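Minutes, project check-in
Item: structure for the 230-residue chain
Input as provided by the requester:
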Amino acid sequence: MPHFNWTQLIPAVGHYYIHIATLIVVSLVLFALAVVGRASLGNVTTQGYIPASRLSVKGFFEAVTEFIVSISDMVVGAEGRKFVPMFVTIFLFVFFNNLFGMLPGWTPATDNLNTTLALGLFMFVTYNILGIKEHGPAYIKQFMGPLLFLAPFMFLVELISHLVRPFSLGLRLKWNMTGDHILVGVFYSLYEFLLPLPLMALGLFVCFMQAFVFAMMGMIYVSLAISHDH
């Protein structure tokens, strides 16, 4: 029997649209945090940028942005700076959707295959568009390999490899989040006090790591797409 979810109190949500309702709720939360974070910056043009001196929404966004920038610099390089807003958005979107699964009465949208495959397809379309924008028609050479006589075989192999990527991204995220929350739920049903706490701490780590892995895989795909080393 399906577990109760707070979004089911919304008319027309029912059981089959829980992930859509959760996505909307998480998006509204992130939008509200973004508005608060932007307001906390003040007038940057006249005052200059002043880093946060205490724990706040502004400090949270600073920490996340600095973390993603450091990873992007290692994976993509200097050219990756212009894609940092996208990487940060992907990380926060996945992370907050994962976190909602830790709250009583909520089901994470990221344990629904429709959500995770949509995220995977977004990343697939995005990095290919960036690759075409960077290389033009020459982007097709990335599918051909270094040797002309192997080009037809390499094209087929590379094409299959690229087509599998959105599914691997989506399935990895979906099943990791599903398994994590099932494990916590099982231990919580066995004993409600204290016993689930270590697993909840582990669950928080999994929420972070899955968002990090998804964002980093996106960085790798973008780096490969815009690279001129092929």
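Outcome recorded: Residues 8 and 15 are 7 Å apart (CA to CA).
No further action items on this chain.
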